[in-house]
Amino acid sequence: MKLQNKILLITGWGVGVEPLQSLKLHLEKKGFETQLINIFNVLECNFQAQLDLMAEVDVVIGWSLGGQLATQLVDIFYKQTGQTKTLITLASNPCFVANDNWQTAMPVDVFSQFKASFLQNPQATLKRFYYLITLGSSQAKQDWISIQNIASPPSNELLLEGLQMLEQLNLVSKLKNYLGPQLHLFAEQDNVIPCKIMENFKDIATKNRSYKLLKDATHAFPYLEVERAIEEICQFLTIHQQS
């Protein structure tokens, strides 16, 4: 059986690639050839250029908004070629802003306030965002400072484009209908994506579609708890390769 050894890793909103460098390094130590791209590569470049990358990889992993883009990429690639890729999302909601059919998401008014705040004062809003994604960790203040120091956000224009994607993307039906293997990891202490999302995933879980809640983890677990994330990813890939 062909081993799945090539991974495309996609960052989240507002952080740049640096916070995921450690995850990339750990994946490479496990024998996976890993390409790390910023979600804004997808926004800035021709979307087809990112789809072309899909032909070269076996697994697509995305953090937060990156998980939504990963879902889009594997879905479109499958529709174009009939080939499935393994999809892994980290602290990612297929529909980030709540609606009548998917209520385990950020309330509309909360998102609207965040977006308005960003338009008024982008730097202060980013700082608050870093606070939210590390809130709940055992050393939250230290982690908040750490991610501020390592983050390399793109231009405010691209960040706003990302917020508009978070507001508009609803990939629930694509995720439900996608036939490739899936793993979705959620965080118990996530202050961006409600862990109640697990209730929805109970309804759509299949043999091919797995999900797990990481106890005591925050939204930033792909950065703060790399070894834990690696353990879950590798365990899933190993089981999938043997099945």
TrEMBL record:
Keywords carried by this UniProt record: Hydrolase
Give every AB hydrolase-1 domain span: 59-221
Annotated InterPro entries: AB_hydrolase_1, AB_hydrolase_fold
Name the domain of life. Bacteria
Q: Name one Pfam family in it.
A: Abhydrolase_1
Gene Ontology molecular functions: hydrolase activity
Protein's recorded name: Hydrolase
Q: Which organism is it from?
A: Acinetobacter oleivorans
